Amino acid sequence: MSEIKTQLVVLGAGPGGYSAAFRAADLGIETVIVDARDTLGGVCLNVGCIPSKALLHVAKVMKEAKHLSNHGVSFGEPEIDLDKLRSYKDDVVGQLTKGLSGMSKMRKVKHVKGYGKFTGSDTLEVEGDDGKTTVKFENAIIAAGSEPVTLPFIPHDDDRVIDSTGALEMKDIPEKMLVLGGGIIGLEMGTVYEALGSKIDVVEFLDQLIPAADKDIMKVFMKDYKDKFNVMLETKVTDVEAKDDGLYVTFEGKNAPDEPVRYDKVLVAVGRKPNGKMFDADKAGVEVDDKGFINVDKQLRTNVNNIYAIGDIIGQPMLAHKAVHEGHVAAEVISGQKHYFDPRCIPSVAYTEPEVAWVGLTEKEAKEQGVSYETASFPWSASGRAIASDATNGLTKMIFDKDSGRVIGGAMVGTNAGEMLGEIGLAIEMGADAEDVALTIHAHPTLNESIGLASEVYEGSITDMP
Ligand code: FAD
C-alpha cells in the first residue's frame, strides 16, 4: 500500500471536483483528485452534458435539413452510420477529457485513479488497478456526484432497459422506445432517438412535461413535440415484463392504454440520486441524510470542519454549472478567502428543439412564494429573426417584481433559448429593472431582441402585440 500526503484531496472529478481542484491548485494548494473513471470530467463530460449535446447537435441539423424541403432545398432521406455517429460523440468527449487532463498536469494536480472511501477525518483509502493508496489530507472536498434512480418493478438487468448512460452508448436505434419520465434528460435523449427514426412514447406521472417549467412555456414546446412524441401525462408505469419479442409495459392513470404495450427499449429517466452512501462518509464523521445528500453551510462546509461537499451530492438543482461555482467557492474558502455560495439564480436548460430555458423565479414559484409579480411576454411569431429562420414557435417571458420593476425571473422557449438566457441571469444578479433591459440596445435582427422587447411590453412602450 502506498501513501500520499496532501493539503487537499478532492473525491470525484466531475465539473464540481475538477473546478475545485484547479482553483485550489491555482491558489497554491497542493491537490490530489481521486476518481474511479479513466478520464476526468465525471458524469457531465463522460456520460452526461457533453455526449448528449453532441448527439442533439446532429439531431437538430437533421431536422433542419429535412425542413428545408419546405423552402425548395431537398437532401433526400438521411443515411445513418451508427458507428460514425458514435465515434463523433466519443471524439467530442475525448477532446474535452484530454483537455482536462492537460490542464490538470499543468497545475500539478495528481489524479489517483480508483475508488475512494474515507477511513477517518483525515484519511481516504483508494482502491485502484495497481492496489491501494492511502491519501492523508488536511482538507477534503467531496464531489462524488449522483447516479440514475432505478425502480423496483423494472428489470434493470435486461439490456433493453437502459438509463441515460445506456442511451448515450447508441448500441442500436430501437423501432419503438418508451421514455419513462418527462424530465429534461428523458426528453433530450428521446429527441435524439426520434430524429434517428425511433417512435417515442413518453410517460409522465405529473400533468406536464418538464414539470418545473411554467405551463405557458411548455404549451409552446408541446406545439412541436405533440407530433414528435406520443405523450401520456398523469400516467405511470406499474410493470415492465421482459419477453423474447420485447418489453411489455403496463400503465395506470389518466392516459393509460388498456393493454400492456410492447417496446423494443425502455429508457428509465426518473431522476438521479446522490452517491452519498457509497464512500464511508461516517468514518470521517460526515453526516449523510437518508436520501444520500450531504448538508453543507454557505461556505460548502459539512459538519466536519476540514471536509467540504459540492455538486449533485449536496442537492438540487443537479446541474454542472452549479457544481462548478460551488467548486470554486470551496477551494477559495480552503485557501483562506471569506467567500460563500449564494447565487440569486441558477439557470436551467432543456436542449430539446425548441429549447426550454428559465432562470430566477418561475411564475409558478413566484405564486407559491407569495411574491408580488407581473409578467410580460414577447411571442417569436413577431420576431423578424425568428420568421427569417423558421423559428417562430417560441416565446420570451420576463417576470418582474411588481413594486420595484426589477427582473426576478425569465423563461424562453425556442431555438437556442439556452444561449440567450444569460442576459436575463445577469439582469437578475445585477438588480436590473425592466427599464434597464428595455433601454439596452439589442442587435437587430436577433432572437435575443425578444428579451428587450418583452421588457418594453412591460414598460408599456409596445402595446399592439399579435
Ligand atoms: P459528477 O459529474 O457526477 O462526477 C462525480 C464523479 O465522482 C464521477 O466521475 C464518479 O465516478 C466519481 N466518484 C463518485 N464516488 C467516487 C468514489 N467513491 N471514488 C472515486 N470516484 C468516485 N447538467 C447541466 O448543467 N447541463 C446539461 O446539459 C446536463 N446534461 C446532462 C445529461 C445527462 C444525460 C446527464 C446524466 C446529466 C446531465 N447534467 C447536465 C447533469 C450533470 O451531469 C451533473 O449535474 C454534474 O455532472 C454534477 O457534477 P458533480 O461534480 O457533482 O459530479
Automatic annotation (TrEMBL):
Cofactor descriptive note: Binds 1 FAD per subunit.
EC top class named in words: oxidoreductase
List of catalytic residues: 444
Note: The active site is a redox-active disulfide bond.
Binding locations of NAD(+): 181-188, 204, 271
GO aspect biological process, one term: 2-oxoglutarate metabolic process
Ranges of residues in domain Pyridine nucleotide-disulphide oxidoreductase dimerisation: 346-452
Family: Belongs to the class-I pyridine nucleotide-disulfide oxidoreductase family.
An example Gene Ontology molecular-function term: flavin adenine dinucleotide binding
Membrane-spanning segments: none
Entry protein name: Dihydrolipoyl dehydrogenase
Cofactor(s) annotated in UniProt: FAD
Disulfide bonds: 44-49
Residues the record lists as binding FAD: 53, 116, 312, 318-321
Protein origin, superkingdom: Bacteria
FAD/NAD(P)-binding domain: residues covered: 7-327
Reaction catalysis annotation: N(6)-[(R)-dihydrolipoyl]-L-lysyl-[protein] + NAD(+) = N(6)-[(R)-lipoyl]-L-lysyl-[protein] + NADH + H(+)
Keyword terms: Disulfide bond, FAD, Flavoprotein, NAD, Nucleotide-binding, Oxidoreductase, Redox-active center
Keyword Oxidoreductase annotated: yes
InterPro entries in UniProt: Class-I_Pyr_Nuc-Dis_Oxidored, FAD/NAD-bd_sf, FAD/NAD-binding_dom, FAD/NAD-linked_Rdtase_dimer_sf, Lipoamide_DH, Pyr_nuc-diS_OxRdtase, Pyr_nucl-diS_OxRdtase_dimer, Pyr_OxRdtase_I_AS
The enzyme's E.C. designation: 1.8.1.4
